[in-house]
Amino acid sequence: MKYSYYPGCTLKTKAQELEKFALDSANELGVIMEEQKDWQCCGAVYPMGKDEVATKLSSVRSLAAARDKGEKLVTLCSACHHVIKRVNDDMKNDSAIREKVNNYLELEKIYSGEGEVIHFLEMLRDDIGFDKLAEKVTNPLKGRKIGAYYGCLLLRPNREMNFDDPENPVIIENFIAALGAEPVKYPYRTECCGGYLITDNKAVTDEMTENIVKSAAMNKVEEIVTACPLCKYNLEESGEAGNKNIGVSYFTELLAEALGVK
Q1: Are residues 108 and 14 in the same domain?
Q2: Model pTM?
Q3: What is the CATH number for 99?
């Protein structure tokens, strides 16, 4: 299986090891992830203004490039996945945005949302299958009680993201189980961590992350795994989270460990 790969900014700067774990794991699973040439930042936040077009152009360039190669576009970062997927939905369903974007870009072939962007976790679930992933595990994470932290961007808004049940998701729990660990559910696993508020209102982020970690601790979670670099940072650095006896990992770390490539 071959995919076009959109890395995003964080995984090329502050979190390079998390990208390496993903690429090494993909190779172990027989998956080719070819990084797109000349990719640009997705903007990190989906633009809510209906007349905002410029910040959507980089997403469309990547989507169109993957479409032209006949490949799905794969991301590792929940923020990148969120932005690109919602922009793709705009290109499918909003004729005014579609026309403006295509006028700006002057692509050889008009882009109308026919491409597909998926998160790496979706690739594992839908294209490889968690049962097949389990067969590839050489270092099962037995005896470890791991809680999934979804946050906001993977699940909401549900119509556009169509990732999993926004109130009771299971994809990361099934991923944890495939690696041989025990998935543990807890109430705050889909609550917001505060996101970018950490840059200018840390007190709010401290409170939100503390609620998440306390919820996990009350349900005997020993480790938290997430698929968003910013969520990982907030949970590790903000409020009381750093003082709890609960580790925070990125999903690619656990995958690489279980496959024996970390």
Answers
A1: yes
A2: 0.95
A3: 1.20.1050.140
